[in-house]
Amino acid sequence: xxxxxxxxxxxxxxxxxxxxxxxxxxxxxxxxxxxxxxxxxxxxxxxxxxxxxxxxxxxxxxxxxxxxxxxxxxxxxxxxxxxxxxxxxxxxxxxxxxxxxxxxxxxxxxxxxxxxxxxxxxxxxxxxxxxxxxxxxxxxxxxxxxxxxxxxxxxxxxxxxxxxxxxxxxxxxxxxxxxxxxxxxxxxxxxxxxxxxxxxxxxxxxxxxxxxxxxxxxxxxxxxxxxxxxxxxxxxxxxxxxxxxxxxxxxxxxxxxxxxxxxxxxxxxxxxxxxxxxxxxxxxxxxxxxxxxxxxxxxxxxxxxxxxxxxxxxxxxxxxxxxxxxxxxxxxxxxxxxxxxxxxxxxxxxxxxxxxxxxxxxxxxxxxxxxxxxxxxxxxxxxxxxxxxxxxxxxxxxxxxxxxxxxxxxxxxxxxxxxxxxxxxxxxxxxx
Length: 432
Description:
This protein is α/β, with parallel strands linked by helices. It has two domains: 12-152 and 314-360, Periplasmic binding protein-like II (D-Maltodextrin-Binding Protein, domain 2, 3-Layer(aba) Sandwich), CATH 3.40.190; 155-311 and 389-427, D-Maltodextrin-Binding Protein, domain 2. The protein is 44% helix and 13% strand. The protein contains 22 helices and 14 strands. The protein has a five-stranded mixed sheet, with helices on both faces. The protein has a three-stranded antiparallel sheet with strand order 10-7-11. The longest helix has 17 residues, at 44-60.
């Protein structure tokens, strides 16, 4: 599954300083309220963007100060949930979509339904300037527990120099001809895989995102009421086996466990893979600093005879801790994040795919320094996204699911042999 994180990190000292600054609220001279706001991104561009957003917010709200709290992504949600359950969470929290329902079901998020229903300007903004799937995300069991910050904004990245050297059409050229399918993707990846003796020196692709393949193949992760996991369907078996075969059968991608796949971007950034699944605009600030790397983005390869659709498993929410002493002030900060002012600051830093279409399709965003030639795909892909809802115990289920997937991705088993038992086991963890 995808994670929203940047390429470059803060120094350890800077990270410690940020955490320490947010650990104990300090009364600010001339200020009545100090809000603590947590986030996980350690991308310097994101840090700078957040600082600008805080400055703009404080200027409009002179009685409120904001203290940023950085928590590394790897431990972010588990640490935050533990703090929230223990009664010591920040006032405002980034929560990734994957965990939004988990936090809501634990009762640690403030119910914002009444705020949203009374906010005519917000409802109009979401209706006219955002994709419907993003607007739908905020509602859970008839309530709103957060406001969505951004949208999906992902695509397939490819190294333009490697394609030119291999005398291959680009993925966009294949797509324009209606030929950018799984079989074409595989053939292209095979031609782009280079060996020195038996040693692979250049892979055709990084490991493929099996979530994307599942939805591209017409499947779904869960049924509509999340009472059944659907990983034992023919669509799921085909998608997961194809993802595994890229590494174990065809050798065009490194064969990695689910945990190792989370860092497989290094194959592309290190110019050891010609294509990379799941690049988002938040990677641009880091990618443009890599000397000699020339790249662009394209649609994902399409499954034959299937509509082009992707799962809405990405994006982040601004949420409020259920027991914050400053609920009204915290809502002002969360609401500010959806204003054109804040959205333009996010876009200027290339730290996310903005929620608002007016910003997402602006030339200032699409033509920003470092953005790829076909950057508009970061925006266009959102039209193909379908809703994906997770059960409240998804954290535990995902860990167990990865245990079933790893033998498939490492060539020790097959999807057909493994997934029926996995589905039966995981179904037992769902509420029926």
